[in-house]
Amino acid sequence: MGRPKKTALLVAQQIVEDISRRGNTVGDRLPPEHLMLEHYGVGRGTLRESLRYLELQGVLMLKPGPGGGPIVQQPDGGTLAATLSLLLQFENAPFSTIMEARTALEPTIARLATARIDDAGLARLAENLRLTREQLTDQAAFSANSERFHELVAWSSGNALFGYLFDALSGLIAGASMGITYPRRQRELTCEIHEEIYAAIADGDGDTASHLMSAHITEHTTYLEKRFHKALARPIRWDLDG
């Protein structure tokens, strides 16, 4: 049996439940402190601990000063990336762990995207392909656009867990990308296979999309192992930036 949850965490859970119940959206202010103290039946210190915890989780922004207070935010994959990096540091796991996970996950994600993507999702992928080609000579832009393609495919799978998990994995592998460069031919090949994956998804061909994604991630991993083995072998360290 686990330890009982602290009162502040229980209150934090109730605050999130109340946000959902009221249908609060990003930018909404929560009730003032005196009303929250009365509603949750706790002391000021406990309530503020709950709010600080939710701020760390990306649920709230605590705006100081008159007219401030807790404001609803949209959590993102950064918090998950920070938590995963902390867990993986304690396991002394190398960055190659992330590439192994991507190799296992992304073919399935591409197959799901083929069946579930909508017109808006296809348009976002097409725009990403255009930008990647347009900014091919810019190393930083190429890397960002390339990772963004995979994020878009993950969210197009219709599975929010895959979306957030991939956001986190993408954020973690970015930490290993420091110093990693891609020659012009490698960037062109990436554009080509991204375009082929997009075509398979647009055609509703799940088998081809899955096969192409598997080949793409395997080839990318082989390139990193050959050219940047030390980066992949480096242990993951806790990254609060996510």
Automatic annotation (TrEMBL):
Entries under Gene3D superfamilies matching the protein? GntR ligand-binding domain-like, Winged helix-like DNA-binding domain superfamily/Winged helix DNA-binding domain
Question: What Pfam family is a match for this entry?
Answer: FCD
Keyword Transcription regulation among UniProt keywords: yes
User: Which InterPro entries does this one have?
Assistant: GntR_C (IPR011711), TF_FadR/GntR_C (IPR008920), Tscrpt_reg_HTH_GntR (IPR000524), WH-like_DNA-bd_sf (IPR036388), WH_DNA-bd_sf (IPR036390)
SUPFAM superfamilies named among the record's database cross-references? GntR ligand-binding domain-like (SSF48008), Winged helix' DNA-binding domain (SSF46785)
> Can you give the residue ranges of the HTH gntR-type domain?
5-75
For this chain, one GO molecular function annotation is:
DNA binding
Q: Which of UniProt's keywords are assigned here?
A: DNA-binding, Transcription, Transcription regulation
**Name by which UniProt lists this protein:** GntR family transcriptional regulator
